[in-house]
Write a structure and sequence with these properties.
Layout lengths: L2 H4 L4 H18 L5 H13 L8 E2 L6 E2 L3 H8 L6 H21 L11 H18 L3 H12 L1 H14 L5 H14 L2 H9 L19
Helix pairs in contact: 2-3, 2-8, 4-5, 5-6, 5-8, 6-7, 9-10
C-alpha cells in the first residue's frame, strides 16, 4: 500500500505547507524519504488548530498538556501495550517536534529548553520504530528519530519566514477564524500568505464576527 493511502493530508493547509517544506529542505540540502516529508507537512497542517496540541478534559472546557517526561514514562510502562502506547509515543514525538521547531526561539533560557524537547521527541520516534509492526512506518519513525534536529530546523525556518513569534500570532488567529468566521482573522491570515478554508455559513452554532 502506498504512502498516500496510509497518511492522509488536509488539502488546504497541506498545499501551502508542502511548498514551503519542499523549498526549505532543498535550500538546506536535506534529503529524506517521501513519506517523512509528507509527515512534516501533515504535522504543520494538524497543529494549525491549537486543540491538537492539547488534551481536552472530558469534564470541563479547559485543556492541559501532560509533561513530556511523564508521557514518556507512561508510554514505556510494561502494562501499556498496543494502540494506546503508539498513540502516546506519537503525541509525544509530534508535540516535541512542532514546539521545538516552530517555537524554538521562545524556549531560550527556559527550564524546559529546546534540547529537552528535541531529546524527548527523538526518543519517542525511536521507541515508535520499535513498537510498530508496519515496515513503512518503522522506516518513517526511524527517519524522524535520526533527523529530528534537522526536521526541527526546517520548521524553525518556516516559522521565521512567516514571522511567527508565538501561538497567538498564528494558531489562535487561525482557530478564531475557524470558530467564528472572523473577517479580521481572515485578513490577517491572508496577509501572512496562509490559505483559509471556506466557512460554512449555514451552521446555526457559528457566530460570524468582524
Amino acid at each position: 500500500m502506498g504512502a498516500d493511502k496510509k497518511i492522509d493530508l488536509y488539502k488546504e493547509p497541506a498545499a501551502f505547507f508542502r511548498e514551503r517544506v519542499t523549498d526549505v529542505m532543498a535550500r538546506r540540502g536535506l534529503e529524506t524519504i517521501a513519506v517523512a516529508e509528507y509527515y512534516i507537512v501533515d504535522l504543520l497542517s494538524r497543529f494549525l488548530q491549537t486543540s491538537n496540541l492539547f488534551d481536552q478534559h472530558k469534564d470541563e472546557n479547559t485543556s492541559d498538556r501532560e509533561p513530556l517526561a511523564l508521557m514518556l514514562l507512561r508510554a514505556q510502562s510494561k502494562e501499556l501495550q498496543g494502540p494506546e502506547k503508539i498513540t502516546i509515543l506519537k503525541k509525544l514525538g509530534d508535540t516535541s517536534l512542532y514546539i521545538s521547531g516552530f517555537f524554538g526561539d521562545s524556549l531560550t533560557h527556559k527550564i524546559i529548553d529546546l534540547e529537552y524537547y528535541r531529546e524527548m521527541g527523538a526518543i519517542a520516534y525511536r521507541s515508535l520504530s520499535h513498537v510498530i509492526r508496519d515496515d513503512q512506518f518503522q522506516e518513517l519513525y526511524n527517519e524522524l528519530h535520526n533527523k529530528f534536529s534537522q526536521f526541527g530546523d526546517v520548521l524553525t525556518e518556516i516559522s521565521q519566514e512567516l514571522k511567527i513569534d508565538n501561538n497567538q500570532n498564528l494558531l489562535r488567529l487561525y482557530e478564531l477564524y475557524l470558530q467564528t468566521g472572523s473577517t479580521f482573522a481572515k485578513t490577517q491570515l491572508d496577509e501572512k500568505g496562509l490559505p483559509t478554508p471556506p466557512i460554512i455559513q449555514n451552521n446555526p452554532g457559528r457566530k460570524i464576527k468582524n
